[in-house]
Amino acid sequence: MTAALIDGKAIAASLRADIAAAVARLPDTPTLAVVLVGDNPASQVYVRSKVKQTEEAGMISKELRLPATATQAEVEAVVQELSADPAVDGILVQLPLPAGLDEAAVLSRLDPAKDVDGLTEISAGRLVLGKPGLRPCTPEGCVILAKSVHPDLAGAHVVVIGRSILVGKPAALLFLEQNATVSMAHSRTKDLPALCRSADILVPAVGRPLMVKADWVRPGATVIDVGINRIDQGDGKSRLVGDVDFEAVKEVAGAITPVPGGVGPMTIACLLRNTVIAACRRRGWAPPAL
Questions:
Q1: Residue 183, beta-bridge partner list
Q2: Residue 192 backbone zone (phi > 0: left; psi -120 to 50: alpha; other: beta)
Q3: Has 94 been annotated as catalytic?
Q4: What is the percentage of the chain residues whose pLDDT exceeds 90?
Q5: pLDDT category of residue 1 using cuts at 50, 70 and 90
Q6: Is 28 in the active site?
Q7: Distance between CA atoms of residues 106 and 93, nearest Å
């Protein structure tokens, strides 16, 4: 059996089309501001893609670049200024920040109503309490991809590998919101392969290339691979792989996301979705169903 491929590019494109249609119906155009500090090549690529897709969805993109030498006070001042700007609906601080900068202190300056990446303490608290708020983009994308295979997640056993505040913990909470039964695994979990084999839906998010092997996966299970790792091919070139040994696992799983082209495209699509929701809530409009 070869697994069905969960096409994150196609699902993200469909969501972006819905977002563009919703934006066209709004009385005013939402604005997303992206703050990029330093010259990290990967961050620059991500920001260019975010700016491009924001504009393609009919929204206004505002990009603020600061040098790697920017001080803590300067970065915090930019975020605070954007938080106070009534013309800005969503703010994304591109992480990681250069060494020496306190990310938590920078995010503390972010208005939670504009926190389209769902990273502030208030956003996290609302998620834990089950209150309305802006949800983290990558975990939200994982849920959407899982629902493309299992429209009703109630009762499904989801195993999330990884307990980071960026993906693992919020993913577990978002699957719980869907009435799934969730197990969180991590580096101290006993007999990790056995736990993974119990999953209906397996969500590896640890940043360890090719860690999940075929005998970790129950035949027919759905695998949502969050990992994105660059490895040396041995010929002077490198390639991107996930946390899952894709070639082996696809022969066991029922459905699987590729890397690249799986979770990654959903992250930006969910960022745009959050921007529309933030704009509507801030302005007292009814958010569109997205």
A1: 159
A2: alpha
A3: yes
A4: 92
A5: low
A6: no
A7: 9
DSSP for residue 234? S
Q: Report the distance separating Cα 29 and Cα 57, nearest Å.
A: 10
Condensed to tens digits (0 to 9), the pLDDT of residues 225-279 reads 999 999 988 787 889 999 999 999 999 999 999 999 999 999 999 999 999 999 9
50 is catalytic: yes
Mean pLDDT score of the chain: 96
Candidate list 50, 114, 169, 250, residue with the active-site label: 50
pTM for the structure as a whole: 0.94
Query: Are 67 and 94 contacting, i.e. CB atoms less than 8 angstroms apart?
Result: no
Query: Which strand ranges, in their side-by-side order, compose the sheet holding 60-66?
Result: 60-66, 31-37, 90-93
103-120 burial, b at 16+ Cβ within 10 Å, e below that, comes to eeebbebbbbbbbbbbbb
The answer to whether the beta carbons of residues 37 and 68 sit under 8 Å apart is yes
Query: What's the pLDDT score for residue 42?
Result: 84
Which entry of 53, 94, 111, 243 is annotated as an active-site residue? Answer: 94
The model's confidence at residue 134, banded by pLDDT at 50, 70 and 90, is very high
Catalytic residue among 18, 115, 117, 245: 117
Tell me 244's DSSP state. B
Q: Tell me the backbone φ, ψ of residue 267, rounded to 5 degrees.
A: -60, -45
Helices 121-129 and 168-177 pack at an angle, to 10 degrees, of: 30
